[in-house]
Design brief:
Immunoglobulin-like, four-stranded antiparallel beta sheet, 149 residues, three-stranded antiparallel beta sheet, transmembrane, Pilin_N_archaeal, alpha+beta, rod-shaped
Length: 149
């Protein structure tokens, strides 16, 4: 007896039971999927996935590096070329030889055109680092030219 014959022999009550069984199986699979999708969408809409919005975001600013050769060493001059105004307390200039210098600014804010400098050895990597509440971000990086000795 084939599948078609057995289906025809079931009668109305049997067909209803088969339909209910298939419907229950589909519901048991779909309900958890719907709940998971709803939870993911809700977390993005409510901002839960980004930590509630209290995370400090690194400033968007551009900086350039110029190097001046002195008799003793190389001086790296870092210039704020554009973008966000940044608190001077949050910026440091870090050199691969271990030297770390805070941004030197009189008014406490680093705005377009402001400069700060640090003495470095030729070939050293110089990084401008922003220090937020829970994170640090390198805003710009450059390598000093080799010393002319």
């Amino acid at each position: 007896m084939g599948l078609k014959d057995s289906w025809n022999d079931l009668g109305t009550a049997g067909k209803v039971l088969v339909g209910l069984g298939v419907s229950m199986a589909v519901l048991l699979i779909l309900i958890p999927v719907i709940i998971i999708v709803a939870a993911v969408i809700a977390s993005f809409v409510l901002g839960i996935s980004s930590g509630g919005g209290d995370v400090a975001v690194a400033p968007q600013a551009s900086f350039s590096f110029e190097y001046e050769q002195t008799t003793d060493d190389v001086v790296a001059v870092v210039t704020h070329d554009g973008g966000d105004t940044i608190s001077a307390e949050q910026l440091t200039i870090e050199v691969t030889d271990g030297a770390t210098v805070e941004w030197d600014d009189d008014d406490g804010e680093v705005t377009v055109g402001d400069q700060s400098s640090v003495s470095v050895e030729g070939g050293a990597e110089v990084s401008l680092v922003w220090h937020g509440d829970d994170q640090t971000t390198v805003l710009a990086r450059s390598t000093a030219p080799a010393s002319e000795s």
